[in-house]
Amino acid sequence: MVMTTYPVLWARWAFFLCLTAAVTGLSMPIFAYLHHRFPARRPATERTVLREGLWVGLYVGILAWLQLGRVLTPLSAFFPAVALIFLEALLLFNEQHRKSP
What we know:
The protein is 76% helix and 0% strand. By secondary structure, the chain is mainly α. The model has no long low-confidence stretch (mean pLDDT 90).
């Protein structure tokens, strides 16, 4: 798809969709293993593992989009990572306190 398709709009969106889905699917078992290997007070749900996989897929899609526009720099890769990590930390914090008895 990357080498044989003209760079029209629908092909770019299909590439980003496929890239995000592939990276999400590949990263979910890694997060499931990490949650199993380093357990917290409460076990992680499937929803948490899916959400973390989606964050990684979204991050890789953002990096690919920035690289396509030739604006990817170490700084522009760092700030979305920090923002997504901060957002996930807030969501995990909220989950832990919502489930507390």
